């Protein structure tokens, strides 16, 4: 390790608390310091090059060196580096971005509220839904339905909606009323059923839960069209239209968490369009700015908006918001990022390159430790497990972590989530990038098996 990175590493080990990290292991092993990026590649302090196969944290559409985003940020820094949106204040980039998002989204999701992160956005969803139901005179309608393995963030309410053990254990979550339904993963959770039978069972479970708890107590159902951080789980055929129909039948709001799916990841603008349903509320982040700036948005239907707005008239305000809600630099960067996605047809590229990636990855099913390869568009999960029985091989997550470490040695950054190795590369990937990425991952699996 060179002198500068060595002293940075020592300082990091002495002072930084890293998210999602075993802190004692970090004190022993130290960081991997990333110094710069170019296109789909990032480079570490030792000069090693990696394909960023997860687009950072499922989030970079335009690659790691887009000059137009830097220029958009600089222009906005010069014009107005900060202003807020409280109490009728406004500025051009956030106005334009809200309008742009309203035009892009399905249905009548015309009203937009900005936060800084996906977690804050989902906390805001919870508060908006509660505020709305209180205003409508149904204070008992407060519970959420979510799914095991769903990921909605880590703040107190969002972390409660998340359906992963590591986010609950010893954090005293869930802390809000939420019921986690079966994860819609056919390969793992199907009981010898066809996909259609599996869907029917999940829908029955959902309806039974609604009836057992009382529809008058259930405010909303939240889900990612394709689950990301829980292990890239694609829903079985007919699942989402079925869920949407149940929500309508029992007057339950349907919330699409599109923090990973949104802006082309699945080869469609939003994930709900890929799976043929229109939510009442949609949450986006990550690829909204390619994560060059922190930003998330909640889009709500006119009906939800009206109920909330009427109550703010009654109370005199909407007592919720963040210092940086709709930050001018973040919203300016988002506008430029969305313009690039459109001009370069990155959603079309995601559809085309996604097909290539999914086809090439299928060959991994020949590897003895690979149970299932799944995905859609430019997101994929390769599950370590026994093909015929879907059972784990060895202790949970251990082999997947070895694949991840071996992939890193092969020059590919991916992510291991429990028994799944996940890929979610930038939307700018080329055929050559896909081929190299799959070759590196294949070598990692071969070394691990
Ligand atoms: N929702 C989904 C679907 C996510 O994947 C994430 C983060 O990965 C979040 C919410 C939380 O976003 P953040 O990490 O910005 O708080």
Automatic annotation (TrEMBL):
Keyword Protein biosynthesis: no
Signal sequence extent: none
Domain of life: Bacteria
Keywords: Aminotransferase, Pyridoxal phosphate, Pyruvate, Transferase
A biological process term (GO) from this entry: biotin biosynthetic process
Known cofactor(s): pyridoxal 5'-phosphate
CDD domains membership: OAT_like
GO MF annotation list: adenosylmethionine-8-amino-7-oxononanoate transaminase activity; pyridoxal phosphate binding
Xref: Pfam families: Aminotran_3 (PF00202)
Keyword Repressor: no
SUPFAM superfamilies, per the entry: PLP-dependent transferases (SSF53383)
NCBIfam families from the UniProt entry: PRK06105.1
Entry's family note: Belongs to the class-III pyridoxal-phosphate-dependent aminotransferase family.
Protein name: 4-aminobutyrate--pyruvate transaminase
């Amino acid at each position: 390790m060179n002198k500068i990175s060595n002293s940075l590493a020592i300082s990091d080990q002495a002072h930084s608390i890293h998210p999602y990290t075993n802190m004692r292991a970090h004190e022993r092993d130290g960081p991997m310091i990333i110094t710069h990026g170019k296109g789909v590649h990032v480079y570490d302090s030792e000069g090693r090059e990696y394909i960023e196969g997860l687009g950072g944290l499922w989030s970079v559409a335009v690659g790691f060196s887009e000059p137009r985003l830097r220029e958009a940020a600089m222009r906005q820094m010069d014009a107005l580096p900060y202003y807020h949106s409280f109490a009728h204040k406004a500025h051009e980039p956030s106005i334009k971005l809200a309008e742009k998002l309203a035009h892009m989204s399905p249905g009548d999701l015309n009203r937009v509220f900005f936060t800084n992160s996906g977690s804050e956005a989902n906390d805001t969803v919870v508060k908006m839904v509660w505020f709305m139901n209180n205003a409508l005179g149904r204070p008992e309608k407060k519970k959420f339905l979510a799914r095991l393995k769903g990921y909605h963030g880590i703040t107190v309410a969002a972390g409660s909606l998340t359906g992963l053990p590591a986010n609950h254990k010893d954090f005293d979550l869930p802390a809000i009323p939420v019921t986690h339904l079966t994860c819609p993963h056919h390969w793992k959770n199907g009981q010898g059923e066809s996909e259609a039978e599996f869907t029917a069972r999940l829908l029955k479970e959902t309806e039974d839960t609604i009836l057992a708890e009382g529809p008058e107590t259930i405010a909303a159902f939240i889900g990612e069209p394709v689950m990301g951080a829980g292990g890239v789980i694609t829903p079985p055929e007919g699942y989402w239209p079925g869920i949407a129909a149940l929500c309508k039948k029992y007057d339950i709001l349907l919330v699409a968490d599109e923090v990973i799916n949104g802006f082309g990841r699945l080869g469609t603008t939003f994930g709900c369009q890929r799976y043929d349903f229109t939510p009442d509320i949609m949450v986006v982040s990550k690829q909204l700015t390619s994560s060059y700036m922190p930003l998330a948005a909640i889009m709500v239907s006119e009906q939800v908006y009206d109920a909330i707005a009427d109550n703010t008239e009654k109370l005199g305000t909407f007592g919720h918001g963040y210092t940086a809600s709709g930050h001018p630099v973040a919203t300016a960067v988002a506008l430029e990022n969305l313009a690039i996605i459109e001009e370069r047809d990155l959603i079309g590229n995601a559809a085309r390159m996604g097909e290539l990636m999914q086809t090439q990855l299928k060959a991994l099913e020949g590897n003895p430790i690979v149970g299932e390869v799944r995905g859609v568009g430019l997101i994929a999960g390769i599950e370590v497990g026994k093909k015929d029985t879907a059972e784990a091989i060895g202790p949970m997550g251990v082999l997947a972590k070895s694949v991840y470490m071996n992939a890193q040695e092969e020059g590919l950054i991916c992510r291991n989530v429990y028994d799944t190795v996940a890929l979610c590369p930038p939307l700018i990937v080329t055929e050559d990038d896909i081929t190299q990425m799959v070759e590196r991952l294949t070598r990692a699996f071969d070394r691990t098996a």
